[in-house]
Amino acid sequence: MSLSAKRESLARIHGRYQRAGRPHKTRILDEFCATCGYHRKAALRLLNRPLRTVPPKRPGPQLIYDPALVLPVLKAVWLASDQLCSKLLQAPLPEWLEHHERRCPKLLGKNS
Predict the structure, then answer these.
(1) 2-34: buried (b, 16+ CB within 10 Å) or exposed (e) per residue?
(2) Distances, alpha carbon 44 to alpha carbons 6, 16, 78, in Å
(3) What pTM, to 2 d.p., does this model score?
(4) Where are the domains of the chain?
(5) How many other C-beta atoms are found inside a 10 Å radius of the C-beta of residue 38?
(6) Contact in structure between 48 and 54 (CB atoms under 8 Å)
(7) What pLDDT digit, counting tens, does each position of 70-86 carry?
(8) pLDDT tens-place string over residues 23-34
(9) With 105 labelled, which of 27, 61, 97, 98 sits at a CA distance of 20 to 30 A?
(10) Rounded to whole angstroms, how far apart are CA atoms 71 and 82?
């Protein structure tokens, strides 16, 4: 069973499980474990916690640039530098960008 199918099944069963009495909860839990392949304890944890309605926020800092504009330039500089790793590319990058801006239009940042 795919992960999306398991989530749909959990969404369908969750409300019914929360409203059910003890004998019905046992049958619902058995049915959920059989259809989704969850271990009983894992299924209990899923059914007893509140359903997540909003997808989780993406970790990390917010993007301050448009990847569609920056990545082609960065790739060109990276290829011209014989594919240096990011740590070694960081030092000569300002010089490479000056050279690149002479040949191509300037990059527009968020604040520009």
Answers:
(1) eeeebeebbeebbeebeeeeeeebeebbeebbe
(2) 14, 14, 50
(3) 0.49
(4) 3-48, 67-103
(5) 20
(6) no
(7) 888 888 888 888 898 98
(8) 999 999 999 999
(9) 61
(10) 16
